[in-house]
Every structure is written in structure tokens, then in C-alpha cells.
Amino acid sequence: MQLNNGEYSFPGGISALSLCEKYGCPLYVYDYDTIKRQFERLTGAFDVKSLKINYACKALSNINILKLFKQMGSGLDTVSIQEVRLGLMAGFSPNDIIYTPNCVSIDEISAAVKLGVRINIDNISILEQFGQLHPEYPICIRINPHIMAGGNSKISVGHIDSKFGISFHQMPHVLRLVETMGIRVEGLHMHTGSEILDTEVFLIGADILFKQARELPDLDYLDFGSGFKVSYKNDGIETDIEDLGKQISKRFNFFCKEYGRDLTLMFEPGKYLVSESGYFFSKVNVVKQTTSTVFAGIDSGLNHLVRPMMYDAYHSIINVSKTEGRKRIYTVVGYICETDTFGINRQMYEIAEGDVLCIKNAGAYCFSMASNYNSRYRPPEVLIYEGKDYLIRKRETMEDLLHSQVEMETLQTALPTGESDFTGLANGVKEGSTVSSKQMS
Ligand SMILES: Cc1ncc(COP(=O)(O)O)c(C=O)c1O
Question: What whole-number distance in Å separates Cα of residue 434 and Cα of residue 260?
């Protein structure tokens, strides 16, 4: 999204405020050009015979986004049987889907086997059960390299206290099991965390993976997971992908030579590919001056974008309705009935009630983590693709909130007069707020 002549707009000259008027706020908008640019930048950074990027679809799983990744030549990284099914529905071949679950039942893993996708195992108990049920099915093993890395403790997953992966110290046990049960290990995987800035951290992990890989003679691929840091503050502080690509390629090519075969180098990024493409627009309901702060209260909350409250994540916030004039300091908060803060002490052009704010880097782990908390509707999603805007998810309605609830017959009278069932109740409620052209001016 660019600022031109006092107006924020997307490729094709689509004005941000006109999207807010057309679809209403709150609203998620994704720019396909940015996704494509990130995908191409990543694939261009490596110099190896065979590279496979598996988009970690937990970041943003709208089926249209998945189809676009398929179109770009990406594979898919999935963590639930539902993500596997979404991937297949989006047209990915089972071979192009890797399923990396954690603490799921063996039944769910068996369901993924039936669908024919690649299976990544991160627990010795599951490995034993898997070997008994599916001895012919090749697997990938997720190791825990005991590296403390990542933007915060909730997204650091490769350290010794983490529930993820099989400790590399337990590899002798893994080797005994696969040998005894005759299981073929086709891949070796690790993922140490998200938002890792330093190339060195990836290289330390890579050396551990190479060392373990030497013990496995039938490998087809090494999967280095993800964790590339993006610049949430728009300050350019991000993983140096070109440097990382150079260093990893050099080591990977050396490893393949030593191993005697060219393997596929795999990565499974989410954030790097979609974070920057996403924008979350929300209207200011109230400006509230207290004795210490000026709050801008928006028509959204942690139910729509939980990262600031969940991870203390920083997201840039701008006033899209005002692009010049006086600036003031605001704390941007949501409407959820508990502390619900998007950003503290943010300098923005002076906010009036009705202005539209934009929260940036809203492509990854934003809509996909949204909920109906406080019985709010989840917002619509719009994709900007080849200069046009496409609605790719409708705003929810009262019907959506109620559709899986089952009304107890004996409680029917408890509903408001005139409403004999939940459908009737749902139909009587208005949808979310639009931005009027007056608010836009
Ligand atoms: C196993 C695995 N792979 C890949 C990812 C994607 O990480 P990121 O979004 O930081 O690229 C995650 C994130 O949670 C993950 O758990």
C-alpha cells in the first residue's frame, strides 16, 4: 500500500478508503504482489539443485491464498488434518504437502497417511505406533536441536524444554526403531522458532541437522523449517535472506557431495511470505482523553488480531484518513471487555472519531488466529490481485455465530418473543459497520 497525493492505495490504484466503504470495517486486505515478491525473493536466494518451499499455511489459510501458492509452485506445510484437507481442496498433490503435527493422536496421523501426504514425526511414542500401523510408509523425523531462538518464548520451539521434536540425543533410539521396524526415513526436519534474525543461528541448527542426516542413508530431503524475521517496525531489521541463502546453499551443497546424492533443500515459511501483504483496517469508534493518555478505541479487538496481546507483538499503525497536519500520541485499544491494546504511545496524524486506522503486517497469524470472542463476527477478507479487489471471505453474521449451536427444545421459550428458533434470531441482526463517504473526506 502506497501513499500517493494524500491517499493510500493498492496496486491498480485501488484506494484503501474506498475498500473500507465497499466492504465495511473491520476489514482484512491482502496484496498478492507482495506475496509473490516475497516468494520470488526467497526462492532466488538459494543456489542448490533442488529447492522446495512449503508455505506454512497456519499463517493465513484462506483457500484462495493456498491456490495462489500452488500456482507459484510452492508446496504446503500443514499441522492439522484440516489444513491437509484444505491443501488438497486447493489442488496441491499429496506429495507437495508435508504434515507436521504435534501432540495429535495416532488416529489423526493415520488419516493423513490415507490421504497420501508426507508425514513428519516428532515423538518416539508416535514413531513406535506408526511403525506398527504403517511400516511401508516413508516418514520424516523432526529433531529438536536444543537451540534457544525466536522472537519470544511462545514462538521459541527448538530448545530443550520445548514439546516439539525428538531430542537429537535420542537419535540412537530413533535409529534402532526405524531399523527394527523397517521404516524408511525420507526426510529430516527441524524448526527452531519464529522471528530469528541472525544467520548464525540458522547455521548452528543446520550443522546439527547435517550431523544427524549422515546417520540416515535413504534421505530425499532436509527440511530446515522456518523462522525468518520480518520487519514489523518497517525499519529494515529482518533476516538477511540473501546472506542466509548463500551460506546455507554452500553448506548444503557440500553436504550433498559428502552424502553422495543431491537432496532437496526444504523450508516452510509462513510469516516471511504473507506478513507484509496484509493490512487490517478498523474504524475509530471513540477518542478518549484520560488524565494520562489519549485512547483511540477502534471497532475491533484482540478477537480479530491477537498478536499484540498474545505475543507483545509490535504492529505499525497508521491513520489512513489523515495524511497530513498535526500529529498526536495515541494508545490504540479495542472493544473487548478486558485489556485489549494494539499499540501504546503511537504517533499518528490527529485522529477524529470515524477515521480509519490501518494495522500493518496483518497477513500472518492475524485472521488465522481470529475468534468470535465477545460474540463478535470475524471480519471479511479481500485480496488485491492483478489490479482488482476480490472478496475472499464474507463478514460473518448472527447466523454464523449460531449455526453450530443446537437449541434445546425445553428452552425455546427463553428466546425473545416472536423468535421461535435461532435462525429467526439470526436474521434479525444487522451486519458490521461501513465507512461513509463523509468519514472518508
Ligand atoms: C513447524 C513449523 N514450521 C513453520 C512455521 C512457520 O514459521 P514462520 O511463520 O515463522 O515462518 C511454524 C510456525 O509456527 C512451525 O511451527
Answer: 61
235 burial level (CB within 10 Å; 0-12, 13-18, 19+): exposed
User: From ligand 1's centre to the CA of 14, what distance in Å?
Assistant: 32
The tens digit of pLDDT for each residue in 179-200 reads: 999 999 999 999 886 677 788 8
189 pocket-lining for ligand 1 (C-beta < 6 Å): no
Judge whether 7 and 318 are in contact, CB under 8 Å. Answer: no
**Residue 227 in contact with ligand 1 by CB distance below 6 A:** yes
Kindly report whether the global pTM for this prediction surpasses the value 0.85.
Answer: yes
Task: Give residue-wise pLDDT tens across range 327-383.
Answer: 999 999 999 999 999 999 999 999 999 999 999 999 999 999 999 999 999 999 999
Query: Could you tell which of 41, 58, 157 is best to mutate to test the pocket of ligand 1, judged by most ligand atoms within 8 Å of the CB?
Result: 58
The arrangement of secondary structure in 32-274, i.e. its CATH architecture, is Alpha-Beta Barrel (3.20)
Stated as kind and residue range, the H or E segment containing 281 is strand 278-289
Q: Which residue is associated with the grid cell 534457544?
A: 148
Alpha carbon 363 to its chain centroid, in Å, reads 7
Q: Could you state, in order of their start, the residue ranges of all structural domains in the chain?
A: 2-27+276-396+434-440, 32-274
Q: Give, in order, the Cα–Cα distances in Å from 419 to each of 360, 410, 427.
A: 41, 15, 10
Q: Starting from the edge strand earliest in sequence, which strands make up the sheet with 7-10, in order? A: 2-4, 7-10, 14-15
The fourth-level CATH superfamily of domain 2-27+276-396+434-440 is Lyase, Ornithine Decarboxylase; Chain A, domain 1 (2.40.37.10)
Which residues, 6+ apart, have CB-to-CB distance to 1 below 8 Å? Answer: 8, 9, 10, 16, 31, 279, 358
